[in-house]
Amino acid sequence: MMISEKSKKIIENYIMAYNSFDIERMVKLLHKEIMFRNFTNGEMNTEIRGIQEFKELAEKSSKIFSSRRQTVIDYNAIEDKAEVQIEYEAILAVDLPNGLNSGDKIQLKGKSIFGLNEGKISLIEDYS
User: Fold this and answer.
1) Do 77 and 90 meet the contact criterion of CB atoms below 8 Å apart?
2) pLDDT tens sequence across 90-105
3) Which of 12, 24, 64, 88 has the fewest CB atoms within 10 Å, i.e. is most exposed?
């Protein structure tokens, strides 16, 4: 199955908004029942539902980085979802409890799964 150009455009607009810390624009692309999950090393460490919770999380996490950039490497269609391979690069604005410090650069490869419903993003799962 192919990912439609329309779906790709929505995902790319979301990633552009994410990269430029434009939370209002991110939220405009979301379905009101948005489900967001984050997985690190195979374990889910975040799960939220709904625009309000998403907005609060996005505002919190935007304060952690002085810059951040997701670059799309590849798209795959899986059933009715889009799996997006991503390279991620960010510079911390704060010291983190895991020993990373403000000014440190984070680089990783990961993937995000996007589900779309009614022309809006209804599911985001980030894996790193």
Assistant:
1) no
2) 999 999 999 999 999 9
3) 24
Nearest CA among 95, 110, 92 for reference residue 38: 110
The whole-model pTM stands at: 0.93
Residue 98 contacts residue 6 (beta carbons within 8 Å)? no
Can you tell me the distance from the alpha carbon of 87 to that of 4, in angstroms, rounded to the nearest whole number?
22
- HSE (side-chain half, CA atoms, 13 Å) at 122: 8
- CA proximity to 84, closest of 51, 27, 44, 127: 127
With CA atoms as reference, report the closest residue to 68 among 9, 20, 1, 123.
Answer: 20
